[in-house]
Amino acid sequence: MRHMRKPIGFTLRWATLLLVAVVSLFPIYWMVMSSFRTHDEIFRYTELGRGLFLPVDWTLQNYRDIFLDPAKPFGRYLLNTLSVALVVTAAGLLVNAMAAFSFAKLRFPFKKGLLALFLSSLVIPYEVIMIPQYLLMRDLGWINSYKALIFPQIVWVFGIFMLIQFFADIPRDILDAARMDGARWPRIFGVIVLPAAVPALITLGIMTFLNQWDSFLWPLVVINEEQRQVIQVAISSFQSLRGISWGKIMAATTISSVPILAVFVLLQRYYVQGITMSGVKG
Amino acid sequence: MPRPASPARSIKPARRTSASYERQEAKAALLFILPAFALLALFIFYPMLQALWISFRHYNLISAESAFAGFGNYRKLLGDDAFLASLRHAFYFTVVVLPVQTAISLGLALLIQRKFRGVGFFRTVYFLPVAVSFAIASTIFRLIYNKDYGMLNIVLKGLGLPVLDFLSNPNISMWGIIILCIWRAMGFVMIIFLAGLNNIPDYLYEAAHVDGAGPFQRFFYVTVPLLKRTLAFVVIITTMDALKIFIPIYITTSGGPAGSTSTVVHFIYETAFKQMNMGYAAAAAFLFFLLVLAISAVQLRLFRSDVEY
Fold it and tell me: Which of A119, A250, B55, B85 could lock B283 by a disulfide, CB 3.0 to 4.6 Å apart?
């Protein structure tokens, strides 16, 4: 209402809103449009005009090229990334939820000390342990193996921390009642706790999946074999070639980000909830 | 004390079941934690200790060299211009990104906090870059920044402005990285601020309004103090993330031009996985870790020492 009385403020506000929206969307728009351009079209339109903002000769050739190139099998990269991300997400949800449940609801000796130990790992930057982790993978013979992409990524202390806060709201009475009825703890966990935590699990699942889908530095270090590479590293390796083919690169980035963006828009409320929980309560 | 023992004996059976209950619960609890603990120990804590150990050794995978170095690696690092320059670049990046990104994100959060028609659309749009991976965002910006056919310079030329060559001019190359990072992260930070803003009860604003406070006074005397915890969180995680910047640098400039964008993590990566000089890289990583830890501790202190609301 206040802004109705001040037309300048109102206009300024909307101008800012729209400007930021354009800035946010433009690179994504540019990526998608470039993926439909022919190779020389990208270099041709270097002046403001229609040809700059929309492809003139729409083509799907870039998409065909990236999927049919046997040297850089794009479909394979997609599949590699998807399977690793799904396995890590599923295993991570189970392992982290189990630990979080224990910390949030069960009584046991050294609980505080153990929790402090877990949380202390949050200050360890990934960059420090990356080197010995790489050496460990070498000793285990896991270089170029998906095991290297999966096992070290399963436990996520930040996720445990988030779930603890969520599980804390489940009343202990319900658990005790089930216990009185003779249910064992694994059953209580599976039948009572997990179903009650579905929203939090979706949140954590989305965050884990996105992290894995975006994972770059670790696969760059442990996967050297072309066929086993994941999508983000594969895309960056397209660029190191001489005579960069931007159309193909943009087709690759479009395919690997647009489905994610779509899912993200649909499920953003869960993701936002996750950020909110970690940021405000934490 | 023998006397209190006799009443205790009469309730012993109940006690025993509750004790075995407790023991069972403790056992179950530890089993629940075990997988996470084992993974954490093997993949985080053990490597952390090993990193410390390696950092005191001359350890190169190419020359197969491995010998005790004492503080040799650390001493050499403090005189290594490339390492010191990489620290400087990381700090420069952070000192710019921290205030600019925080201000923009808070501004956006304030803009879309109030309900109006279309607010959901704007929130989603601002948040969308968060879902674009860092590697992809960097790739797109590399195309946009191109001097000859990149969007940015075509528009600048079209408007009669000077060309900005972020990819090969060492004086401004870091700014290209900064813009790209803010583009990708501002929506994320905005959401954190939005959550903080929504936690401030309306009646405080109403009370301030009744007391005759204008919009600026309301912002500085109600919003800012009550947003302190959120602000502390944002400042600390932004600093940590910014100091660790790597992916956009690896993809857009590889530390160039003329080493102008090489940051600490880029230095560590190059040393460890290009030169295979593990000992030296581990020492660099450890120094960097101590530095980040110290900075976070100072920031926490600064935010805590203020009055609590």
Answer: B55
**Cα dihedral: A98, A104, A110, A115 (round 10):** 80
Tell me the per-residue pLDDT of B228-285, one tens digit each, with 9 for 90 and over: 888 988 999 899 999 999 999 998 888 878 888 899 999 999 999 999 999 999 999 9
**Do A12 and A110 share a domain, yes or no?**
no
Q: Is B163 on the interface with A (CB under 8 A)?
A: no
Identify the H or E element spanning B68.
strand B65-68
* Chain A residues with beta carbon closer than 8 angstroms to that of B124: 265, 268
Domain B73-305 is of which CATH architecture?
A: Orthogonal Bundle (1.10)
Q: Are residues A58 and A93 in the same domain?
A: no
Number of domains making up chain A: 2
Nearest alpha-carbon partner for A258 in A52, A78, A54, A68: A78
How far is residue B230's CA from residue B62's CA, in Å, rounded to a whole number? 47
H-helix or E-strand spanning residue B65: strand B65-68
Q: What is the pLDDT of residues A187-212, one digit of tens each?
A: 999 998 999 888 889 989 988 998 99
In angstroms, what separates the C-alpha of A102 from chain B's closest C-alpha?
Answer: 5
In chain B, which residues have pLDDT < 50? Answer: 1-14, 307-309
A256 in the same domain as A117: yes
End-to-end CA distance of chain A: 35
The candidate with the shortest Cα–Cα distance to A238, out of A247, A229, A249, is A249
A89 is in which domain, residue-wise?
A: 72-281
**Type of residue at B219:** F
Q: Which residue has the tokens 């001040």?
A: A6
Considering the domain architecture, whether residues A46 and A128 belong to the same structural domain is answered as no
Query: Is the minimum CB–CB distance between A136 and chain B shorter than 8 Å?
Result: yes
Answer yes or no: do A13 and A76 share one domain: no
Complex-level ipTM: 0.87
Peptide bond into B257 cis (omega under 30): yes
Nearest to A102 among B32, B157, B286 (CB): B32
